[in-house]
Design goal:
Layout (H helix, E strand, L loop, with lengths): L2 H26 L7 H17 L23 E3 L8 E3 L2 H14 L7 E7 L2 E8 L2 E7 L5 E3 L2 H4 L15 E9 L2 H13 L8 H9 L4 H5 L4 E10 L7 H11 L8 E3 L2 H14 L7 E8 L2 H7 L9 E5 L17
Parallel strand pairs: 2-11
Antiparallel strand pairs: 1-6, 3-9, 3-10, 4-5, 4-7, 7-8, 10-11
The structure holds nicotinamide-adenine-dinucleotide.
Nicotinamide-adenine-dinucleotide binds next to α1, α2 and β3.
Length: 331
């Protein structure tokens, strides 16, 4: 093996080790030690080296898995349908390539997209049987999540009973901590000499994984629901109609989503939010672009890690915080 080859192999191993450690800090301990931007750069480097050297991709590489793990202290429960992650777009070029991939996967058909805010919280899955909330979990490793039903029952935006008695519905969304609650919580922790949360996402994740649900209840969490995971009954045909229906059922659905006729309109909406992102009362780390037609979504399918019909557009790095210590400055 040449020196150059050995160097790449070593770097790949180093990246896997580092990223796995950051995943543990972030998903299990809720205590990241680097910013998301720094993390994304490591992951991009890993993906690039693996794409250039596919024979060295290992099944335990963080590129092959959905990030989380199930924490001890909570029951580990299987998802009915895996909860995947999203592919990332780091600029307009990546979005245009996504559009090309989608349209070629659909033999050149016209595609409508829905653009949503990417709420920076924790993915949750809620099960309703005959309209009654029976189970709530985290995403975990995508196959198994943590059963946090008792904690989620304390979140007022989560209905315990729906407005229709649907036989079975699994709905997915994001639990989050509003910025003002996050600032107050950290002020209180500082006074009490406790460790501060790095950002609202970590505060929400930490609050939902409390064994004492009274602590969760005191944390003023909220949740936006953004997808139907599984439904017994006819599907609503499009993602946008699904969102409208979820709202009618009593869920909190973010109103800042937009149906776009083409990628140009998507790009325009992304540019607008890049400027307005800090005006919101909750943190977002980008936008999510989804194919609107559920039939087209099904035809596109998914890879092991993420659906082919959706992508996360991450805001450019200059707007990201630069060090972990500054992380609370621009929430
Ligand atoms: P992701 O953040 O790239 O995107 C998937 C997630 O987006 C979903 O699981 C869901 O929770 C969320 N989401 C929010 N709004 C949504 C909407 N409207 N529709 C669909 N999904 C929506 O994926 P991930 O696997 O959760 O996390 C990876 C990211 O986490 C990295 O890119 C990095 O930014 C961050 N991270 C940081 C560290 C660190 O040490 N700083 C470590 C691990 C991960």
């Amino acid at each position: 093996m040449s020196d150059g080859t050995q160097r790449i192999k070593n770097r790949l191993e180093e990246l896997r080790r580092e990223i796995n450690q950051h995943n543990y800090q972030y998903y299990v301990l809720d205590q990241p030690t680097i910013t998301d931007d720094q993390y994304d750069r490591l992951m991009q480097e890993l993906l690039r080296l693996e794409a250039e050297n596919p024979e060295w991709v290992t099944s335990d590489s963080p590129s092959q898995r959905v990030g989380g793990q199930v924490q001890k202290g909570f029951a580990s429960v299987p998802h009915r349908i895996p909860m995947l992650s999203l592919g990332n777009a780091f600029g307009e070029q990546d979005l245009k390539e996504f559009d090309r991939r989608v349209r070629s996967g659909l033999d050149g058909e016209e595609v409508e997209y829905v653009v949503e805010l990417k709420i920076d919280g924790l993915a949750i899955s809620l099960w309703y049987e005959k309209g009654i909330f029976i189970r709530g979990t985290t995403r975990g490793d995508g196959e198994f999540g943590e059963d946090i039903t008792a904690n989620l029952r304390t979140v007022k935006a989560i209905p315990l009973r729906l407005k229709e008695d649907i036989p079975f519905l699994e709905v997915r969304g994001e639990a989050f901590m509003p910025k003002d609650s996050f600032v107050k919580l950290n002020e209180m922790r500082e006074e009490a000499g406790e460790a501060l949360f790095a950002n609202p996402r970590n505060a929400a994740a930490g609050s939902l994984r409390q064994l004492d649900t009274r602590i969760t209840a005191s944390r003023n969490l909220s949740a936006f629901m953004y997808a139907i995971g599984y439904l017994e009954g006819p599907d609503p045909g499009s993602h946008a109609r699904g969102l409208a229906w979820l709202r009618e059922l009593g869920f909190r659905v973010n109103s800042q989503h937009k149906v776009c006729e083409d990628m140009e309109e998507v790009l325009e909406y992304c540019r607008r939010w890049q400027e307005k992102r800090f005006d919101l009362p909750y943190a977002i780390d980008g936008l999510v672009i989804k194919v609107n037609s559920l039939q087209q979504q099904q035809r596109l399918g998914a890879t092991l890690k993420s659906p082919r019909w959706a992508i996360a557009y991450k805001f450019p790095a200059e707007q990201a915080v630069s060090t972990i210590r500054d992380i609370t400055v621009r929430v």
